[in-house]
Amino acid sequence: MKIYIDGKFYDEKNAKVSVFDHGLLYGDGVFEGIRAYHGRVFKLHEHVQRLFYSAKAILLTIPLTPDEISRAVIATCRRNKLQDGYIRLLVTRGVGTLGLNPRTCKRPSIIVIAGKIQLYPQEYYERGMDIVTVPTTRNLHSALNPAIKSLNYLNNILAKIEANQAGCEEAVMLNAEGFVAECTGDNIFIIKAGKLFTPPLYAGALYGITRDVVCELAAEIGMPVSETNLTRYDLFNADECFLTGTGAEVIPVTKIDGRVIGSGQPGKATRDLVQRYHALTKVSGEPIYV
Ligand code: PXG
What we know:
Blueprint: E1 2-5, E2 8-11, H1 22-26, E3 29-37, E4 40-41, H2 44-57, H3 66-79, E5 85-92, E6 109-115, H4 122-127, E7 129-133, H5 154-165, E8 171-174, E9 180-183, E10 187-192, E11 195-198, H6 209-220, E12 225-227, H7 232-236, E13 240-245, E14 249-256, E15 259-260, H8 268-283, E16 286-287
Parallel strand pairs: 7-8, 7-14, 11-12
Antiparallel strand pairs: 1-2, 1-6, 3-4, 3-5, 4-16, 5-6, 8-9, 10-11, 10-13, 13-14, 14-15
The site of 3-[O-phosphonopyridoxyl]--amino-benzoic acid has 15 residues, from helix 6 and strand 13.
């Protein structure tokens, strides 16, 4: 595998960052997780745009234009002969001193890794996931806005650990007010009486790109979407529930905190959205090889 770092490609064993990079010392930086399907990078423009928004929010000036970043992503895929895979794009604050002041970091580093994705087992897609609400709440906007996809993922990692300790793979994270925010690496949706509901972004969710795609797909099939605060009660009493994310795509949820959701099987509308999402990944995206 060849890894892109600041305009050059390195072998895996030589792809290194400094121990003085504030990305490592403080989690000071931003990232994106992107998929490639059938020789195309899915929603590349949207991911690059979100990267720039995250960077702006933390006053990190990315030393390339969005087009140049997109070209670096495509070049890395090409260099690795990628057809289907997972692309990790990150921008670190760069090398500085041991103090946390970002002003000591003169140049942010851009890294692109194009590799394989760790997928959930197929049976989760067929039978649905069993997830659990965890004690760790989602970060407050006023502290570290969940809209920023920063290199500091400890909030999500703590929730993931708590889910794992409860024997689950994914966690429902509430916000400090007790409303549903999202999962550790996925947005959450429910279906109730033919309508789709998902927490608003101010509830503490990432502006998920898969979330947006699913809202568009729902519009296509004439299913109304409402962004509204949800409680655990709403989740428990949903007809269907699913998660969305670049890694998971659209994945059904059939149990939450020991409560069976709907029929206990992935619902019809969820399965329809799963299929439509798959169909879209087959035809959409920025071509890697032209
Ligand atoms: N919320 C959080 C906290 C995320 O990290 C999503 C929602 C879904 O957003 P997108 O834009 O991907 O629909 C994410 C994204 C992984 C992995 O390896 C995680 C994500 C994306 C890609 C891979 O666990 N999370």
